């Protein structure tokens, strides 16, 4: 039996060879109905593009690179889920690397991606991001930065409204009657942590102008949240509410409170940020700022595909794929039992 060619797929789908090529390569300028027809024809004929020939003709590797500070934890699992869904829909592969927060390993990972990928998704949430990336990121390689500080010419930046989310959480705790609101901060060199701390400070200054910020340093992990919680319990008077800069620290803090017999929220209210899946299943369920983490990964991947194709998305704010753009996804207040007694889990209005 003769091998099936792209011309056969075009004939069955009743479109041009160029349209088949664009549909199979995940280009955005193909109508969804046409793309589905092409994919159905390819499946019916059991057509498999010749990877080597396709790379030679298009100069594409059909692979996206993903460089993250870590791969451990629910946040990164959800982020990768969103990225993978978009990549699979476009029949692309992922090349993933983690640098464990080490700038030298990050530079090595970025250099190792050269020539192997068509574009890069990079999460570099550190204050020194522009310097590190400008030294190691290939200027001609399309790139989208996730949860990173803006400042790299030509790169799109997509993240979340950390500042606005932190302001909204402090306001919720204030509206719930709390006046001694402590904050467990994230790493000092982390951009997300910096913005959440800034939101806490500004909201506290607006709502409680006579109160001094009460900040305990954490590290975005459960252990640092546990240590911070024990430190806060040793204070006199204790805080009546604690806002942790992420859910993992909030869960560590919750465990420390439970060990000391402190009731949440009756004795101390507690809240986090991110809304990782575990947040709704602990007891009491955790009040948090919801970040659609999988959607963050999916939006970043779609933005990258548009840049690889030389296009711009309607919401990118960019006139061309080479222009710098920045998108901040909104957060959503999710009120659960840890900040309001008898709260309805998952209902932001309760």
From TrEMBL:
<keyword id="KW-0238">DNA-binding</keyword>
<dbReference type="Pfam" id="PF13377">
    <property type="entry name" value="Peripla_BP_3"/>
</dbReference>
<keyword id="KW-0804">Transcription</keyword>
<feature type="domain" description="HTH lacI-type">
    <location>
        <begin position="4"/>
        <end position="58"/>
    </location>
</feature>
<dbReference type="InterPro" id="IPR046335">
    <property type="entry name" value="LacI/GalR-like_sensor"/>
</dbReference>
<dbReference type="GO" id="GO:0003677">
    <property type="term" value="F:DNA binding"/>
</dbReference>
<protein>
    <submittedName>
        <fullName>LacI family DNA-binding transcriptional regulator</fullName>
    </submittedName>
</protein>
<keyword id="KW-0805">Transcription regulation</keyword>
<dbReference type="InterPro" id="IPR000843">
    <property type="entry name" value="HTH_LacI"/>
</dbReference>
<dbReference type="InterPro" id="IPR028082">
    <property type="entry name" value="Peripla_BP_I"/>
</dbReference>
<dbReference type="Pfam" id="PF00356">
    <property type="entry name" value="LacI"/>
</dbReference>
<dbReference type="InterPro" id="IPR010982">
    <property type="entry name" value="Lambda_DNA-bd_dom_sf"/>
</dbReference>
<keyword id="KW-0678">Repressor</keyword>
